Amino acid sequence: MASSRKSQPSPKLGKRIAVALSGGLDSVVLLDTVCKAQSKNKSSAVYVFHIHHGLQKQADDWLIFCEKLAKKYQVHFDFRLLHLAGEEQGNVEARARAERYEALADLCTEYGIEDLLLAHHQNDQAETTLLQLLRGAGVAGLAGMPASRELNAQGGKIILWRPLLGQSRKELEAYAKEHKLKWIEDPSNQDSQYRRNAIRKTIIPALEKIQPEAIANLARSAGLLGEAQGLLDRLAIQDGKHILLTNGIGHQPLLELAQKDLPAANNVLRYWLRVNGLTMPSQERLAAWWRDLQLVKAGAQLEWAHDESMIRLWRGVLQVEEVKAGEWVFKTIPSASKAPGFASQWIKDAQKNGLVTLKERSGSEKIQIKANTPRKTLKNLFQEGDVPPWQRQAPLLYINGDLIAVAGVGLSYPHLVHTGPRVRPEWQQKA
Ligand SMILES: Nc1ncnc2c1ncn2[C@@H]1O[C@H](COP(=O)(O)OP(=O)(O)OP(=O)(O)O)[C@@H](O)[C@H]1O
């Protein structure tokens, strides 16, 4: 196999690394190269992770194939099962990808792995850039996939690496042939109803007839645009010095920048959306947002649905809220009250007797949340805690008829301290 681009970063050896194995040519080649490097080096332990999407009937066979391959190389293996069947066809690809990344991150967290290797290669990069071009994307989209990036994970930092980005599919095929590797073909790769597959099967071969280096050149453009995006990000941070706040984006300073320099303000807004994990809005949507931001009166509220989140303007700050139906977060409880075991038993007992209830706010509820303070109305506590109005709708948690917890505010102090319930951290998270 041709050597990868010298400038490409690589994960540190000497610790656990994970290979995401789909069973296709690319990841089979990646696993082979990683295991061969590891057998010489012996300094890092290889873990193989497979994600079963539950979408195609052959998926069980892929799982078995991947498990056997890991066994052959004598490396650790684990998998996750996703439940995507029933998703709308148009959504399914994006959904599968998002959930796959999440599941891979979970597996890495579970095994204490910081480096996750994926087998995207040069053709994938060229296809991504073409797809983005067809969508009318800007610099960030056209830059395609970075050789490495941090993956959002709850358990800590995970770096996702794409060590094969400098290799073409032809090179990977030649490597697989030379080393007599076996892999499985995903039938959806042959299916031209997916736009990416149409690009792969029709557009790229046509481009290669006109320009034999088309794939490498498209991937090179993506790399150059990646560099340009890095500079745009630095500009966004500079321009956003007084706009990008810890809890969102300042409305007035953003408008002031937009009046002076709209492209610079768009750049700050796009940067903010991206760091919040949101996709870029279409030109029409962006134009509508600017209209809203200009027309809204000082102190008024605004809300836009975007991706699966809500973007809200409240008290002069644009904030992102992920919409997760039925999930409310209670505020941190005093650390002194963390006595595991006791609380969970207390809650289990209450649940068994059917005494845990969720009720809607009626308006007159009061709760004491701190030592040596009086009981206060929820209205006061919401105001004091700057709890945005949309978070004030959370149901109230009662145990044995007593108000115990209010999302955004906290837990009933006397109940925590005197009557026993010492609440475990996980209980704070979801109700
Ligand atoms: N089911 C899976 N289980 C584990 N890893 C997978 C799986 N599917 C894909 N991968 C990993 O992701 C890499 C890229 O695969 P693929 O091109 O299908 O994914 P993608 O993330 O959807 O990319 P694209 O944006 O190109 O569609 C694979 O080479 C492999 O490393």
Automatic annotation (TrEMBL):
Gene from which this protein is expressed: tilS
Binding residues annotated for ATP, in chain numbering: S22, G23, G24, L25, D26, S27
Keywords (A to Z) from UniProt: ATP-binding, Cytoplasm, Ligase, Nucleotide-binding, tRNA processing
Domain of life per record: Bacteria
Source organism per UniProt: Polynucleobacter hirudinilacicola
Record flagged with keyword Nucleotide-binding: yes
Swiss-Prot/TrEMBL catalytic activity: cytidine(34) in tRNA(Ile2) + L-lysine + ATP = lysidine(34) in tRNA(Ile2) + AMP + diphosphate + H(+)
Protein name per Swiss-Prot or TrEMBL: tRNA(Ile)-lysidine synthase
Pfam family for this entry, one: TilS
Residue ranges constituting the Lysidine-tRNA(Ile) synthetase C-terminal domain according to the UniProt record: 356-427
Functional description taken from the UniProt entry: Ligates lysine onto the cytidine present at position 34 of the AUA codon-specific tRNA(Ile) that contains the anticodon CAU, in an ATP-dependent manner. Cytidine is converted to lysidine, thus changing the amino acid specificity of the tRNA from methionine to isoleucine.
